[in-house]
Amino acid sequence: MSKPEFDPQLSDWNLIRSFIAVVEQGSLTRAADVLGLSQPTLSRQINELEQNTGNALFERAARGLKLTEAGERLVEPARFMMSAARSLGLAIVKQDQTLQGTVRITASEMVSAHVLPRILVKLARQYPDIEIELVASNQLSNLLEREADIAIRMLRPTQTALIARHLADWGIGFYAHRNYLKGLAKDELAPASNPMTMYRWLGLDQSDRFIQGFREAGIQVDKHFFGFRCDSHLVNWEAMKAGLGVGVAPHWLAQKEDGLEPISIGADIPALPVWLTSHRELKNNSRIRAVFDFLALELQALT
């Protein structure tokens, strides 16, 4: 069987960027830190590029990764593509003098605290004249009333006057700190008719979102099922890390936190959809468009 013909026009740009980062850093770990990606995500991108080119590009060496002969041949044209892309970006910025001013973004507390900071650092480097206002709130801001220019939401917007793009589906699960699990009595860890009762659960207070989520999974609970309740996801996250009980978190975030361990309840948990939303002015406002497109690329590359 002949090798697949590599067509750069059909290849994901992130694959080339990731390839060069690994070349320059010499390891997946360091390259992932530079790109702000998880190591499994970066590894998948390199594997995809190798499948697209039909060649292994790296081989393991004593001090990290070493380019194969096929990889060596790809370095120069890949760097040329990177340089050309940067030149194109600079040309566009110079032509468009409207890339100045403020863009207001709204996102949940968790996204604002654990996702956006690294992305906004990159955004500030690329668009230094754009000012960002970030509304970190779990309440849904009304884009139609101009409470924000761009929203990152975990559900699909229903207003037809908005532009929305589905970026990803974040897998979520239940996690607890190993210190909390060690503190449970041995008889509590023994098999039970309802293993969920073994744990203290962290939930929401005024919001019934968690209750509805459990019920959709076929598990009937009420607010008293949760031994600790707070509507701040950030507070629940810190409570989980402190060992207060079992909480909910995206897999990509929990797996980065040393000490957190997954908890299985024998039921599937629906993934969390990530939507990027803006009003229709996006089409005519190059400043908002630039931020929207930048966020879309970075959020898609997150996992």
UniProtKB/TrEMBL annotation:
- InterPro entries assigned: LysR-type_TF_proteobact-type (IPR058163), LysR_HTH_N (IPR000847), LysR_subst-bd (IPR005119), WH-like_DNA-bd_sf (IPR036388), WH_DNA-bd_sf (IPR036390)
- Does the keyword section mention DNA-binding? yes
Q: What superkingdom does the record give?
A: Bacteria
Q: Report any Pfam family annotated for this entry.
A: LysR_substrate
Biological process according to GO? DNA-templated transcription
Q: Which UniProt keywords apply?
A: DNA-binding, Transcription, Transcription regulation
One Gene Ontology molecular-function label:
DNA-binding transcription factor activity
Q: Which SUPFAM superfamilies does the record cross-reference, listed alphabetically?
A: Periplasmic binding protein-like II (SSF53850), Winged helix' DNA-binding domain (SSF46785)
Query: Which residues belong to any copy of the HTH lysR-type domain?
Result: 12-68
Q: What family does this belong to?
A: Belongs to the LysR transcriptional regulatory family.
What name appears for this protein in its UniProt entry?
LysR family transcriptional regulator
Organism of origin is Undibacterium nitidum
